[in-house]
Each structure stands twice: as structure tokens, then as C-alpha cells.
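FAQ
Q: What does a multi-component entry look like?
A: The components come first, one per line:
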Amino acid sequence: MTETPGSNAQRERRRRILDATIALANEGGFDAVQMREVADNADVALGTLYRYFPSKVHLLVTALGRQFERAEAQAQGRPVPGDTPHERVMHVLGVTTKAMQKQPQLTEALTRAFMFADASVSEEIHYVGMKLTAIITHAIEGTDQTREPTEEDTAIVRVIGDVWLSALMGWVTGRTTADEVERSMDVAVRLLLR
Amino acid sequence: MTETPGSNAQRERRRRILDATIALANEGGFDAVQMREVADNADVALGTLYRYFPSKVHLLVTALGRQFERAEAQAQGRPVPGDTPHERVMHVLGVTTKAMQKQPQLTEALTRAFMFADASVSEEIHYVGMKLTAIITHAIEGTDQTREPTEEDTAIVRVIGDVWLSALMGWVTGRTTADEVERSMDVAVRLLLR
DNA sequence: TCCGAATCTAGAACGTGTTTCAATAATAGG
DNA sequence: CCTATTATTGAAACACGTTCTAGATTCGGA
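Then the predicted structure of the entire assembly, as C-alpha cells:
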């Protein structure tokens, strides 16, 4: 799927770096992901870290992309429970929200990096966006994978993704609770999938 | 409206600081708003700047709030053109998008600060959110200000605001063009206001 | 007008993201 | 196996947000 270029040793280094990143983020959030610390924990020189990832934000957004990849791989084939698009989308969002609640620091780190990213990270951002829409589309379609998503479906998926990001931001910045996230998602999805 | 406390000299300092912030942001975006530079240009000591605004993000989000205040004051009383809620909302969003296109650096600076804000900025963030929903609500209502907004209206306004923020982020990070922002807003508003 | 408290100033200092560089190690091509 | 190229290392240096300190200055109340 995602062919990572380079020698074996290089793939290993890259993996160690991303692992260290996730571990640090999980413990202390965005601020705890310090480049010197990541390099140390990944057994790599600081310069090497910067050769692999040109900035902290690149690093974190790439890590987010890897998380989405794994989530997608896990959901692969398994049908989403629920009889209506609304139910299925809410199920996926609910599961995701619950997972994020269990690792609030990690969520904070990855979300803030995503939000803070500037134009130089657009490629990585775009990748994450694709994964997100793929997951929501999959939920809307349900088992009925035969039907090609209409243009309207695509638009709806994008809007749901947007609302979810905003809600996530509210939660990460402590303005809303996880319950409120779920409630506001429910309202938005109801408005859109009617 | 917004009673700024303190002596005259203090209000003046605060104004100079925010003016310098906007000016720097307008020239060079988020990175060009450097605290030492802001302090210099506003003729205050660095320590004073930090007494007024405890962080760069507080500073920028407060500046964003002031911009919204002014936008709201200008729109005050003037009815929004358009015969339907959809038309009126799109008109407001279109005008805003155009204004932002004229000052892309300023938009980048304020948007990124808003996105990056953490829990300590929730008050300022909340203020900006209120202004935004007020503007959208005003557009939906149009001249017919008699009708109390329903609960559904409120929910719709919030979703529109969320989508707009996401679209804005896409534009700021160079993933989408201003045209695409407007187009995706049109789709979202159509989906919601039907 | 005078005093004490609050505010402001100038500047040094610190932490962390980022850059740079010389030396060493690994790797690929002949 | 040798060599040229490239990658990695370790460490210093730089940039900018933030904090701290010591001494003016300003301000409000007696």
C-alpha cells in the first residue's frame, strides 16, 4: 500500500522515529514531543531526525497518517453496524471518539499539529484528509458497496469531516466535552443525511 | 459594547499593541508576528506586552476578535442582500472570503493562531465563536428579525461555522483555492438550508 | 503634596525548534 | 576490494517565545 522508500535500515529508523513520537505524544501531548527527545528515544541523531521529517509538524502529521492507516486496515472488510447511514456514521464516529478519549494526550498532540500545519505540510494533510473521507464514506455506504457514491454523497462526507474536525478542536482545546462532541456530531449528521 | 478596563494610557497601549500585531500579521503572516517586534512597534517593553497578553496566541486571537467586532459594527443595521437564507448566507460568506483574499497573510496569521489555541485561550476563542455565529444568524434571518431562531437554526448556524473554519484551514494551508472555498461553502449551505 | 502600590522599562536569561558543520560510517558502482 | 558518494553522528550555534530581575515611572488615595 504505502511503499516507504529506502534501505531496510532506513525503514527501521523511520519506524523507530514514528514509534517514539507516538509514545511521547501519548504520555505528554504536543509539548512533550520534543525533537531532541524523539531523536534520543529513536536512537537517531537530531540531524537525522530532521533529514527524515523537516519539522515537528511534519513529524506529527505523518504519525497521524499512520494511525489512520492502521484504523482503516482494522476496519477493512468488517461491515459497520447499523441499519441506516446515520446509524453507521454515528457508530464510526462514536467508536473513534471513545478511542480518542482513552488517549487524550495523543489526540491533543496529533490534532494540534494537524490544525497548526502550514502550506509546507499540505501533502501530509491531504493524505490524512483522504483517509478520513474514506472512513466516513465506507460507513455511509454500509454493506451496499455496489452503489457508486453520488456527488452529493461526496459533498456530505466532506461536510461531516469538516464538522468533526471542528468538534475535535473544541474538545482538544477544552471548550467542549466528549459528550458534546458526540451530540453535535449527531445533530450535524442528522441535518445532512436526511 | 466592549468596555476595555484601565486608564486612558492603558487603553492606548492596548490599542497600539493590537494595531502593531495586525500590521505585522498583514505584512508577513503568523511568523512575522514576533513578540519583540510587536513590543517595539507598539512602543512598549516586552514585559508589558506579556502583561497585556499572556502569549502570542492570546494576542492574535484577541486581534481576531477585534476584527470580527469591527466587521459586525459595519454590518450593523444594513440588511443583507438576498431573497433566501441561502442567498444571504452565501453573500456574507462571499464578502468575507473576498476580504480575506485581499489580506492573505493576515488571514493566515489569525486563522493559524485560532486553530492552534489551547485551553488557556478558551475565553477569547469563545468570544470569536459568538461573533461568528451572530453574523451567520443575522444573515439567515434577513430583514425578518421578528422570528426567534429555532433550535434547528442554531444547530445549522453552528455547522455552517464549522465548515467555514475547515474550509478556511484548507485555504490557509494551500490545499484549496478561494474559489473552492466558496464552492464548498455553497454546497454545505445548500445541504443545510433546504 | 506625598507615599505606597502598581505598572512599566530595559535587558539578560532560559527552553525548545531548527540549522549548520566537521568527522565518521555505510553504501553503491566499478 | 577500492573509492566516491551519500547518510549518520555529535555538538555547537541560532531564533524566537517566554520568564525573570532590578530599577524607573505612574497613579490613586490620604
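Q: Is there any commentary attached?
A: Sometimes. For this entry: Chain A touches chain B at residues 112, 115-119, 121-122, 125-126, 129, 152, 155-156, 158-159, 161-163, 165-167, 169, 172-175, 184, 187-188, 191-192 (CB under 8 Å).
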